[in-house]
Amino acid sequence: MAIPLGANRALTGRGAHSMTNFDTDLFVIGAGSGGVRAARVAAGHGAEVMIAEQSRIGGTCVIRGCVPKKLLVYASRFPHAFEDAVGFGFAEGKPEFSWERLRDRVEAEVTRLSGLYRKGLESAGVAIREERAEIVGPHEVRLACGRNVSARTILVAVGGRPSRQGSVIGAELAIVSDDVFHLASLPRRMVVLGAGYIALEFASVFAGLGTEVHLVHRGDAVLRGFDDDVRRIAAHTLAARGVKFHFARNFVKIETCPQGMRRVHLQNGEILDGDVVLIATGRVPNTDELGLGRAGVVLGEKGEIMVNAESRSNVPSVYAIGDVTNRLQLTPVAIREGHAFAESVFGDKPWTVDHANVPSAVFITPEIGTVGLTQAEACERHAAVDVYVANFRPMLATLSERDEKIFMKLLVDAETDKVLGLHISGEGAAEMVQLAAIAIKMGATKADFDRTVALHPTAAEEIVTMRTPAARLRRADATS
User: In this structure, what CATH number is given to the domain that contains residue 451?
Assistant: First the structure.
């Protein structure tokens, strides 16, 4: 159960002398992964902590992001697994699928995890307020119930929200990623606007479940910011699985058809109909009407809270972590930022988060895992880059006869032999990159990879058996 306001505990450390003039040591706005971690760690150091959440405890990742999305990804891969099984001696068959059953089971798991987050806060002694909170001053927060709470330190951890295309007529007729998990039925036809990882992941999910998916993008390539080879492979593999791409296009208008379908008008005059239109063009910091201006907190062009390496804003008492700062929009990053903040401010253990060499994944099928520099970034920052490439058919595809390959690219600084980046497309890519990221974060060289004995037969063994560069890239201004 939630701890009532004012139920002070004996404090230790820096919190021991902080309750003289304030209702609480720390007030956290937003009970997502980052905010919850910060609250629990701060409370563990003896601080009195209060946290407010206007939605459900757990935030985007647990409630409407990473966790439920990955469960849908798993579901979307079973149809292909059933097909592959035939090559391994199983009788051909097509089990019945129920979107409603999947949706409800995913929701049940989300509810369970949200409850665990709540228990974690309660066991740490954090006071929970399930209502909206706004900042009214550098040390003051107003709850939706009208009560003001003073705090020595305020942490904003409200994350981001899906961005709607405000310039598109009828944008309100479309759904955003938050809505995907509550669809009444499986769409027969879906139109997706966007080509980032969220757009591609949901396009992959629904195509795998049997929906006809059309993806519209104003550019000519997907996954901006990723390695160019990975971008090309992602588009190719999704197209092979049935996703129909419409490049160099943009939405002009969305309207409702008499049969209840959504009709999308594109700039070139093309018309696409779908049961569902999904706008997935990115996310924006969730800072609207949060009262940051009243406290004098400086915001960036996208509404993000500007912070330094310690996650402190220009107002000394106000900090911010996670997506609301628009640094790296990844849940594990928000968690580390929250942990670093709490230990630095309340635990006398100052440290900051290193945002370099953070691994990430795109959970399309086959998935993408990546860590470190892209080839373009490596060549921009280093005069000499060696590129190692492996492109092969996995063992699973030999008997299933699926036209699918695993692609790996290792980027190496030719002058220092240091590994600069690893990019993988294929089954298990995310798991492989997570482990390889440890070595890359430690500054491993290509020689370190070469000295590692391969584990056979695995796809991952290729990471340590690539011997000859596929390309040796040298800048024209590099001295020999």
Answer: 3.30.390.30
Does residue 127 belong to any structural domain of this protein?
Answer: yes
Q: What's the structural domain count of the chain? A: 3
Which DSSP string do the residues of 376-408 spell out, in sequence order?
A: HHHHHH-SEEEEEEEEE--HHHHHH-----EEE
> Annotated catalytic, 236?
no
- Residue 408 inside a domain? The answer is yes
Tokens 């079973």 sit at which residue?
A: 78
The answer to whether residues 34 and 157 touch, using CB atoms and an 8 Å cutoff, is: yes
pLDDT over threshold 80, residue 18: no
Give 13: exposed, middle or buried? Use CB within 10 Å, 0-12, 13-18, 19+.
Answer: middle
* Cβ contact 456:464 at 8 Å: no
312 and 456 assigned to the same domain = no
What's the pLDDT score for residue 9?
35
317 and 240, same domain (yes or no)? no
* CA 238 to centroid of chain Cα atoms: 20
383 and 462 in a single domain? The answer is yes
Domain residue limits at 239? 171-281
CA distance 341 to 226: 29
In whole angstroms, how far apart are CA 191 and each of 21, 52, 244, 391, 434?
Answer: 55, 36, 10, 32, 32
Signed CA dihedral, 247, 253, 254, 257: sign only: negative
Digit-coded pLDDT (tens) for 59-109:
999 999 999 999 999 999 999 999 999 999 999 988 999 999 999 999 999
Task: Give the CB-side neighbour count of residue 95, counting CA atoms within 13 A.
Answer: 12
Q: Would you say residue 32 lies in a domain?
A: yes
Q: Is residue 433 part of a domain?
A: yes
CATH code: domain of residue 327: 3.50.50.60
- Which of 281, 301, 329 is the last residue before a domain boundary? 281
Determine if residue 106 is left, alpha or beta; phi over 0 gives left, psi from -120 to 50 gives alpha, anything else beta.
Answer: alpha
Bridge partners for 32 per DSSP:
58
Residue-level pLDDT at 478: 57
Contact 285, 269 (CB under 8 A): no
- Reply yes or no on whether the pLDDT at 11 is more than 50: no
Confidence of residue 374 (pLDDT cuts 50, 70, 90): very high
On whether both 154 and 19 belong to a single domain, the answer is yes
Assessment of whether the complete model's pTM goes beyond 0.70: yes
* Same-domain check for residues 189 and 246: yes
Mean of the per-residue pLDDT values for the chain? 94
Condensed to tens digits (0 to 9), the pLDDT of residues 152-204 reads: 999 999 999 999 877 799 999 999 999 999 999 999 999 999 999 999 999 99
The residue from 249, 281, 313 where one domain ends is 281
| Surface-to-core class of residue 455, CB atoms within 10 Å of its CB (0-12 exposed, 13-18 middle, 19+ buried) | exposed
